[in-house]
Specification:
This protein has helices at about 5-25, 30-35, 40-65, 75-90, 100-110, 115-150, 150-175, 180-190, 200-225, 225-245, 245-255, 260-275, 285-300, 300-330, and strands at about 70, 335. It is mainly alpha-helical. The protein has one domain (about 5-15, about 30-335). The chain is globular and about 60 Å long. It starts with a helix and ends in a 7-residue tail after the last strand. Mean pLDDT is about 85; it is low at about 340-344. This is Phosphatidylglycerol lysyltransferase. Its main location: membrane. InterPro entries: L-PG_synthase/AglD. It catalyses: L-lysyl-tRNA(Lys) + a 1,2-diacyl-sn-glycero-3-phospho-(1'-sn-glycerol) = a 1,2-diacyl-sn-glycero-3-phospho-1'-(3'-O-L-lysyl)-sn-glycerol + tRNA(Lys).
């Protein structure tokens, strides 16, 4: 980690402490202490198991993609990749640092840069597709609840969905309408040259065209490996399912056994969309607020609500970051190339 990343990490941990402290301002600490004592630790362990499975299944997807081309990646190194992603997602705006950090980590394993980029590209496309599919399903179930209880938040949810949908549409356009997409990008860039220098305009346009061409070339290979992508999609669907189930098991740990698992899971999908809108690393502040507002109807007791939010945030954000800190100091092993597999 660079010095700058370490500073941001320290700032985010400090920000989390401040947010937790602010959330506790109107909470009876004696009551919260009693709530902690009466937590059902078995359900809490299940919630912890869900985040472990979430990270573990991403490691499975990564290993599947790496080994499809004959590179043997150890399980230790496969698990290291999503942990590093979690750390750098957590300390960069809009989780933008996760992809470059994974690329560096894979190259440390001896995987050629182009091959590593291809693996991450395939994983990103599948992940975003599963996020959008899950969201559409959840929107059908949970949006009416948001509209009735907390209407103002429903607009944030829809906006977050539109951003993820736009990403998928953009990727599909490059994959299937490459030439049209390049012409469209050129048209969009026309007004930009009036606001930046000629040198910067040219650099941006050339760089973007290179990335579009690179993605198109990789997408051609991706489409020929549809069986592999289908398997990775299934693993990714299960990965996200375990993540989305975490609040349900936290509520069970708090003694709320009458909650609807489908509704709670769908609402967590919607929170995921809200978090993606906040430019602050980890969606700090917005994530805690969104959780508290959405799940207040299920908990009722302010002490239990804050406790649920804190447990949820520790599991879904800080757990991955601290695990990622450990992963960055683990020495990577070089991959062994054992065979060459034809595209499926």
């Amino acid at each position: 980690m660079s010095r700058r990343n370490k500073v941001v990490l320290a700032v985010m941990i400090l920000a989390g402490i401040i947010i937790f402290g602010f959330s506790l301002r109107n909470v009876n600490l004696n009551q919260m202490a009693r709530d902690v004592v009466h937590l059902n630790m078995w359900w809490l362990l299940v919630a912890l198991g869900c985040i472990v499975l979430y990270l573990g299944l991403e490691a499975v997807a990564t290993k599947m993609l790496i080994q499809s081309n004959g590179d043997r990646l150890s399980w230790r190194d496969a698990i290291r990749i999503p942990l590093i992603e979690q750390l750098f997602n957590g300390i960069t705006p809009f989780s933008s640092g996760g992809q470059p950090a994974q690329l560096v980590a894979l190259m440390q394993n001896g995987i050629e840069g182009g091959r590593a980029s291809s693996v991450l590209l395939m994983k990103f496309v599948v992940f975003q597709s599963m996020v959008v599919i899950n969201f559409i399903f959840s929107l059908l179930i949970g949006f009416q609840y948001l509209e009735e209880k907390i209407r103002f938040l429903s607009w944030f949810v829809l906006f977050g969905f539109l951003i993820h949908l736009a990403v998928i549409i953009g990727l599909l356009m490059i994959m299937y309408w490459h030439n049209f997409t390049k012409r469209l990008i050129s048209a969009i860039f026309i007004p930009i040259k009036h606001f930046v220098s000629k040198e910067r305009y040219t650099t941006w346009k050339v760089t973007l065209n290179e990335k579009v061409d690179s993605f198109y070339q990789e997408s051609v290979r991706m489409k020929s490996q549809w069986r592999l992508l289908a398997k990775v999609a299934l693993v990714t669907f299960l990965q996200l399912l375990f993540y989305y189930l975490i609040p349900y098991f936290i509520l069970l740990a708090l003694g709320k056994s009458d909650v609807n698992i489908v509704m709670v899971t769908c609402l967590h999908v919607l929170i995921f969309m809200v978090i993606s809108l906040f430019p602050i690393p980890g969606g700090a502040g917005g994530a805690e607020y969104g959780f508290s507002v959405i799940f207040a109807q299920f908990v009722g007791n302010n002490s239990k609500l804050v406790l649920a939010m804190m447990i949820w945030r520790i599991l879904t954000y800080y757990f991955g970051m601290f695990a990622g800190m450990v992963a960055t100091v683990v020495k990577p092993h070089k991959v062994n190339r054992v065979k060459v597999v034809k595209n499926e």
